[in-house]
Amino acid sequence: MKVLVVGSGGREHALAWKLLQSERVQEVFCIPGNGGTATLPRCRNLALSSTDFEGIGRFALVNNIGLVVVGPEAPLAAGITDYLQSQGLTVFGPTQAGAQIEASKAWAKALMQEAKIPTAAAQVFTTAEPAIAYVKTTGAPIVIKADGLAAGKGVTVAATIEEAIEAIEAAFGGQFGAAGQQIVIEECLNGQEVSVLAITDGITIRPLLPAQDHKRIGEGDTGPNTGGMGAYAPAPIISPALMERIQQEILEPTLAALRKRGIDYRGVLYAGLMITPEGNPKVIEFNCRFGDPETQAVLPLLETPLDAVLLACAQQKLEQLPPLSWNSGAAVCVVVAAQGYPGSYRKGDVIGGISQAETAGATVFHAGTKLKQQQVVSDGGRVLGVTAVGPSIREALTQVYAAIECLQLEGMYYRRDIAHRAVNYTDNPQLNPTQR
Ligand code: AMP
Ligand code: GLY
C-alpha cells in the first residue's frame, strides 16, 4: 500500500517512519514533509500545499494511494477529509464537522456539557463588556480562551483580574483575528496534565498509551508556552484503573455525543486532561489529531503495524482489530529548538551529528528542517525531536541525552528535565500523584 501523510512537523516524520516499518507499506508521500521525510528511505516529499485539496486528491487518485493520514488540525478544520472522501479516498482524520471539537472551544464545551463530561465550568462571550463583568464576579485565577484555532497561543491562565481583563480586551481587539471574536471563560483547574490520544472509527474508541507533554520553554515548567519541548510515554500517573475511568467517563460519552450530532468521526480524539488532586480526570481541551510531540514518544512503543491501526479507523473496522500491542518499556522525546525560540529564532543553520545521534541509540525526528543542497538545515523553531526507547524512563533518558550530545547546531536549546514527573513518580511513590 502507498500512504500519503499531510503535514510537515515532527509528528508527520514519526508517522511516516512508523508506517514504513510495516511490511505492507511500500511507499509514503509527505505533503509537504521536511528534511527528515526527504531523507527517509521509501519516503518522498511532494511540493504541494496542505490547503490544495484538489491537487492532493488528484495525486492520490492517480498514484493509487490506499490511505491518506492528516497530521495537523488546520486542513481538518478546513474540510480536507470531506473533500478527499468525496473523491472516494480512504482518510484517517475527522471531517470538518468533527474537527470542530478542536476548532471551536465553545462548540466543544457545549458538547461536553450536554454529555456530562467532566470539565471546567465555563461561559461563552461574544463581546468584551459582559465578559469583563463576569470575571469581576468570579475572581482569579481564571482562564480566558479564544474560541478558534490560534496556533496554541489563544489561552491565558490569568493569575489576576487585571490579567484576565487584558486577555479579554486583546481577544476582542483582534489579537487572534476571527478566532478571538468569541471567547470561553473557564474555571482554573489544578493538578497534573496528561495527554490521552485515542483512536476511533466513529463507533469504537481505544486509547493509546498516555503521554505527558512539556509546554513551557524553561526547566521546571517555567517561561512562555511553546508548541511542546518534549514528551514521554507511558505517563505513570495514569493507572489502568484511571484509564478505565477515562474510557467510561470521557472517551465513550464524547464519541456518543459526536454520533448524536450525526458526526462520523474517524481519526484521533486527543483528550488533554487535568488529573485533579483528588485523582479525577477532567477535560482541558480536545484536539482532533495526533499530538506533537506526544506522537514522537508514543509511536516508537507501538508494536501493532500502524497502517493496520489507521486503516481500521478509516474503514470503520476498529472493533475487528486485535488489542494494540506495546513495547513494555518507555520512550522519551526531547525537542531541540533553535536559538531564540519561542521568540524570533535563527534559521538556515546546518545541523551536524544526526547519524552519530542515531548510532548512539536514538531516533531523530525532524520538525523544523529542510534539505538544502543535500544538507539538513534548520527551518523552524522546534528543529528536532530526539527520541529513545528503553526498558524504563530513566534508561530512555540516559540514551536520549547522550544522543543529543552528538548533535551540532549553532545556539541550540533543549530542556534537561524532560520526564521529571515520571522520574519523581518512581522515586517518591508515597506522594499524591499530583504532588509529584
Ligand atoms: P489549550 O490551548 O486549551 O491546550 O491550553 C493551553 C494550556 O493552558 C493547557 O495546556 C493548560 O496548561 C492551560 N489551561 C487551559 N485550560 C485550563 C484550565 N481550565 N485550568 C488550568 N489550566 C488550563
Ligand atoms: N502537544 C500539544 C498538542 O499537540 O497540541
Automatic annotation (TrEMBL):
GO terms for biological process: 'de novo' IMP biosynthetic process; purine nucleobase biosynthetic process. The keyword Cell inner membrane does not apply. Residues 109-315 form the ATP-grasp domain. PROSITE patterns: ATP_GRASP (PS50975), GARS (PS00184). Gene3D superfamilies: 3.40.50.20, ATP-grasp fold, A domain, ATP-grasp fold, B domain, Phosphoribosylglycinamide synthetase, C-terminal domain. The keyword Cytoplasm does not apply. Its cofactor is Mn(2+); Mg(2+). One of its GO terms (molecular function) is ATP binding. It catalyses: 5-phospho-beta-D-ribosylamine + glycine + ATP = N(1)-(5-phospho-beta-D-ribosyl)glycinamide + ADP + phosphate + H(+). Its EC number is 6.3.4.13. Signal peptide: none annotated. Pathway: Purine metabolism; IMP biosynthesis via de novo pathway; N(1)-(5-phospho-D-ribosyl)glycinamide from 5-phospho-alpha-D-ribose 1-diphosphate: step 2/2. HAMAP family: GARS. PANTHER family: PHOSPHORIBOSYLAMINE--GLYCINE LIGASE, PHOSPHORIBOSYLAMINE--GLYCINE LIGASE, CHLOROPLASTIC. Belongs to the GARS family. This is Phosphoribosylamine--glycine ligase. It comes from Leptolyngbya sp. NK1-12.
